[in-house]
Design brief:
Elements: H1 5-15, E1 21-27, E2 30-37, E3 41-46, H2 52-63, E4 67-72, H3 89-102, E5 109-113, H4 115-126, E6 133-137, H5 147-158, H6 166-173, H7 185-193, H8 198-209, E7 224-229, H9 237-245, E8 251-255, H10 262-265, H11 267-282
Parallel strand pairs: 3-4, 3-5, 5-6, 6-7, 7-8
Antiparallel strand pairs: 1-2, 2-4
Length: about 290
């Protein structure tokens, strides 16, 4: 599914003012792209399994009115790279910690979505000194393997697919939590996701299958907010609520009518809740 260039540009222009400031950081022998928006207190947005920084740019543009928003690339985004990909989520978290240090970000707020939420959780339990607050959307302490995810992984691994493949694009549409509203948004999501190589998508789904920090959540000692879309069919609200309940002092909030990509479809609500949470966290006693 593709949208005309004019409509795509209208969507992009209405979503964010510019494409941010681009820099490159070398992590584990690979150059990764980093995009920064705005000025202010540091906030790091960790992208999901596919789509990279561009899928987060509309939200970043809103948050950049109040924060310096950094969206780091992930190793493997530039496929093929000639370097070994991360073997597990711990390596991805180590990359993120290294990148935060190289950029000179002092205890930034960390906001991870979906696959990026798993990376953020891993970093929060192993290197809590790196961050000042934690925000998660579409994440859980141990990802359950679903039939849809297993099928998608096998298809992505074994069959070279065109970017207009109907089967996989329908899987992307599930991220909306139901049939998406007519308009440019569904095409925007599909196009951004297909900018990630399908072998990379498959590998990242595989990493999630072994991800589990459920026995280490007690190590998180920063203010935490868990945001859950009420129509998230990938990580249902019950499991995200359970995550919040297992982190000391964590807050739980819902995004009414949002699916797994609520950070995009409900970005104004997300931005309001993030800003309120970080403002309240900054005034809380240490």
């Amino acid at each position: 599914m593709r949208i005309a260039a004019k409509r795509r540009n209208e969507w992009l222009l209405s979503s964010h003012d510019d494409e941010g400031r681009h820099v490159q950081v070398r992590v584990a022998g690979e150059w990764v792209d980093v995009v920064q928006f705005g000025h202010g207190e540091p906030l790091v947005l960790v992208p999901g399994l596919a789509g990279g920084w561009k899928l987060l740019a509309p939200l970043a543009s809103m948050l950049a009115r109040h924060y310096q928003v950094t969206i780091p690339g992930l190793r493997g985004d530039r496929f093929p790279t000639g370097t070994a990909p991360p073997r597990d989520m711990a390596e991805h978290a180590h990359d993120l910690g290294s990148l935060i240090g190289q950029l000179g970000l002092e205890r930034p707020a960390l906001f991870g979505v979906s696959f990026g939420g798993a990376i953020a959780l891993e970093l929060a339990v192993e290197q809590p000194q790196r961050i000042g607050a934690l925000i998660l959307q579409g994440a859980e302490a141990r990802f359950r393997t679903t039939l849809a995810a297993t099928i998608a992984r096998r298809v992505l691994e074994r069959f070279p697919l065109p970017s207009d493949n109907g089967f996989v694009n329908q899987f992307f549409n599930l991220l909306h939590g139901g049939k998406p509203e007519p308009g440019p948004l569904p095409g925007f999501v599909v196009e951004r996701c297909w900018e990630t190589d399908q072998a990379v998508m498959a590998r990242r789904i595989g990493l999630l299958e072994s991800f589990d920090v459920s026995d280490r959540l007690w190590q998180i000692d920063v203010p935490t907010l868990v945001l859950a879309g009420t129509r998230d069919v990938v990580v249902p609200t019950s499991r995200q609520r359970s995550l919040a309940s297992e982190i000391a002092g964590a807050r739980y909030a819902t995004l009414e009518g949002a699916g797994h990509i609520g950070f995009l479809t409900h970005r104004a609500d997300v931005a309001r809740q993030v800003r309120r949470f970080l403002r309240e966290a900054s005034h809380s006693p240490c």
